[in-house]
């Protein structure tokens, strides 16, 4: 076998190194050159239940977004005026009774735990990102259905910016978004995510999930006892 001269072999190795550097770059793995600061990783918000006792934490969170536009809301005509301190200084029951959609639920009064009809404790949370908390009220009925309303203060008046209904309702915040999960008639779960659009809370995602069916046993013997499933590759 004919050997290449030592000078030719060295030149070929240098050429291969030059090509590899041109293809892979001279930086560290991942495309960052030495000394380049690594971009900060922003923490993603996690669901925070407004009423933990009404929330099943085994459920998930929706993803993809869709849009839904509705007419702008009108202020409640007979609601109390909002003082400079904000909605936190307003009697929540006075707001509920001024809202014709929520007033029928006020007769049962406030409840502190699930299992009976009435108004859940009022919650104040910032859903618009302006630093001024909104008022969130939910009511449970004897049939298992619930009604939810979000109220916002604007120019000293109270505006209902979201109204929703559903069965076995669980409500969470996801950052400044509101996640409403309810049960459907076909045994699935509906997860709707609302976001402030400058006018009202609108739908940004609406997902329906079905529970996973339990895995059926492989079979039973003559006495009705379950049989073991054969190992992969074994004859059945």
TrEMBL record:
Residues 1-27 form the signal peptide. InterPro entries: Integrin_alpha_N. Residues 37-83, 208-236 are annotated as: Disordered. It comes from the Bacteria. Residues 70-83 have a biased composition (Pro residues). Keywords: Signal. This is Lipoprotein. It comes from Streptomyces antimicrobicus. The lineage of its organism: Bacteria, Bacillati, Actinomycetota, Actinomycetes, Kitasatosporales.
């Amino acid at each position: 076998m004919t050997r290449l001269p030592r000078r030719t072999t060295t030149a070929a190795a240098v050429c291969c190194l030059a090509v590899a550097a041109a293809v892979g770059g001279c930086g560290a793995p991942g495309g960052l050159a030495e000394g380049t600061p690594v971009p900060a990783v922003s923490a993603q918000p996690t669901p925070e239940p407004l009423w933990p006792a009404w929330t099943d934490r085994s459920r998930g969170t929706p993803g993809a977004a869709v849009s839904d536009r509705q007419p702008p809301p009108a202020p409640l005509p007979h609601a109390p005026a909002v003082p400079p301190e904000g909605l936190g200084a307003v009697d929540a029951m006075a707001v509920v009774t001024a809202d014709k959609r929520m007033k029928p639920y006020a007769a049962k009064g406030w409840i502190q735990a699930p299992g009976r009809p009435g108004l859940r404790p009022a919650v104040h949370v910032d859903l618009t990102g302006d630093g001024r908390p909104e008022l969130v009220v939910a009511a449970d009925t004897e049939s298992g259905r619930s009604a939810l309303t979000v109220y916002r203060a604007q120019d000293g008046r109270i505006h209902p910016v979201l109204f929703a209904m559903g069965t076995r309702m669980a409500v969470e915040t996801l950052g400044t978004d509101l996640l409403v999960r309810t049960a459907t008639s076909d045994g699935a779960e509906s997860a709707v995510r609302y976001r402030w659009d400058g006018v009202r809370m609108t739908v940004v995602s609406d997902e329906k999930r079905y529970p996973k069916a339990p895995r059926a046993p492989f079979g039973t013997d003559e006495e009705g006892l379950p049989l073991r499933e054969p190992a992969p590759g074994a004859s059945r």
